[in-house]
Amino acid sequence: MRKLRVVIAKPGLDGHDRGAKVIARALRDAGMEVIYTGLRQTPEMIASTALQEDADVIGLSILSGAHNHIAPRLMDLLKARGLDDVLVVIGGIIPDVDIPKLKEMGIKGIFLPGTPMQQIVDFIEQNARARV
Amino acid sequence: MKTVADAGKERWQVETLEPALKKAPERAASFTTISGRPIERLYTPEDVEGIDYDRDINNPGAFPYTRGIHPTGYRGKLWTMRQFAGFGTPEETNERYKALLGAGSTGLSVAFDLPTLMGRDPDHELSLGETGKCGVNVTSLADMETLFDGIRLADITTSMTINSPAAMIFAMYLVVAEKQGADWKTISGTIQNDILKEFIAQKEYIFPPRPSMRIITDIFAFCATEVPKWNTISVSGYHIREAGATALQELAFTLRDGLEYVHWGVEAGLDVDAFVPQISFFFNAHSDFFEEIAKYRAARKIWAEAMRGQFGARNERSWKLRFHSQTAGVSLTAQQPYNNVVRTALQALSAVLGGTNSLHTNSLDEALALPTAEAATLALRTQQIIAHESGVANLVDPLGGSYFVEKLTKDMEDGTLAYFEAIDRMGGMVSAIERGFPQQEIAESSYRFQQAFERKEKIMVGVNAFVQANDSPIGILYIDESAAEIQLAKLESLRKTRDNDAVQRSLERLGAAARTTENLMPRILDAVRTYATVGEMCDALRDVWGEYEEVPII
Prior knowledge:
CATH superfamily of chain A: Cobalamin-binding domain
Number of strands of chain B: 9
Structural class of chain B: alpha/beta
Strand order of the largest sheet of chain B: 5-4-3-2-1-9-8-7-6
Distance between the termini of chain A: 10 Å
Structural class of chain A: alpha/beta
Shape of chain B: globular
Largest sheet of chain A: 5 strands, parallel
Strand content of chain B: 5-15%
Largest sheet of chain B: 9 strands, parallel
CATH architecture of chain A: 3-Layer(aba) Sandwich
Shape of chain A: globular
CATH topology of chain B: TIM Barrel
Largest interface: A-B, 35 and 44 residues
Strand order of the largest sheet of chain A: 2-1-3-4-5
CATH architecture of chain B: Alpha-Beta Barrel
Helix content of chain A: 40-55%
Helix content of chain B: 40-55%
Number of strands of chain A: 5
Number of domains of chain A: 1
Oligomer: heterodimer
Radius of gyration of chain A: 13 Å
Radius of gyration of chain B: 24 Å
Distance between the termini of chain B: 56 Å
Number of helices of chain B: 24
Number of domains of chain B: 1
């Protein structure tokens, strides 16, 4: 089975990338192929990257409060491009009250502050499916 | 009386320590600071033998200012209690400022939202979902007027955390001051305006490094004559630390950034003593109590020596490092948030024992959201209790003379100078950044810390130890899209009521000026007065300089 391909993205204007980079490295150490998009990504750019890179997983890092704007747009774009079997997870600062709606949109994993790296690695391994 | 020579740590180790260790080993094989620096179990006169009090430490207010820049310390004047605040619309934030001033804070500090920080108007594609969420939205002079409505700029000092568009936001503040009848020659405050740390850590850059440095030296030159009491820059370590740097990296990169700014100012033709007194600093107040105190003391010494020595500054005010500090946001936990009150109190105490000139204390809910009014008040009370109940402000530099603190201060200094040498060999800080050196150091340190945390070598109470299954949730400040809607409506209305020809002309003149070496501040002030927006002014400069794109380093 080929390595899981994970796109780690920083959508919106927020530049706090410590978490995204640490997770990217942890996933790489766990044997996954990681593509880090860098900062200031629009949902369109992320969906394009996911398509180009044959992503199995998209990990969004959002600490700015923009998740309610970004998530639905991304999920719509993924659906439109036939990428709805890509596992989408979010890490960052998400108020509890917003979590149910995000899950309803199809975001399977939401990782809040303090989540151990291994928990994220395990979740991705258990829930992602290598698309071929 | 035992002399230093027969105090013999070695003898004590053999006669007293080893037998005790045989009976009971220590709790761990080694003890390190949160930065990973090993700490010995005991410090004695032997550890400070090479340190000369008069040359290396000296009394407060005397070179090299290790013990403080004021001879009377907090007996003369308490540190400024300057709580960072901002969210939603300028109206809402104006209310919060009035509440904070009413509760006893002694300076204002503005937190802007991401669109403002990134030089974008609320109607830009990248601003959607972001307006008003992380700070207050300020799109034009009109918003700045609202933000300070009922607050006399002549009577307070304001710090504004703004970097790439600092010149525009500062110009708005100046015009508000002017409209209020406040004199630019006497108003005081700070703009963060530290672009180097944006490339290194906070990532709020817009333009490439060299034009960004040009704006900063323009501000230095402008303020030297026009706004002489203003802190033109707050050279920051806070964000470098939050991004994962160790205490030593924070100290070294921050001070080296400072040296870089002085170098560029001198290269731009300014006399060192004309602009250096208006440079200030901003450090993190992190969890390892003594490491932080040593860091602040080392900072003062290193800066004084560099200004007097390397740069030949003759004005004492150029030698005296002044700094604001903020307790470490990154140390706060979403789990058991009331624990954060304790963390903040200890961190604030270390900043005070380190002689901070200004302090922001985080609120207990900041791992979850921007602070509620109640949480923000408690954070302020934390400072007031330290100031008025703990006794630490009764004297200057209480920990001076501690064998441990003096040794640690010296070690921090040595480590910093080693980093300076390495960065100098790379051709300076701008070159080091272009190579990715500080970014790589930070990426390594942050990964190392995360691994240590996951192996439980570093404990965070409530997160990887002393975990509670039923953590009671607390009410948080939830910011919805209404702020964005209000700001968008205002922007639409502004574009109908202002003189758009005047705006256009001012933007063209700004762009033209950017292509020459003329000082940009007058052109920016002109544009601000026409009610040009942050986005419009930054776009005028984007058209000339382009935008920086980083090569990410993991």
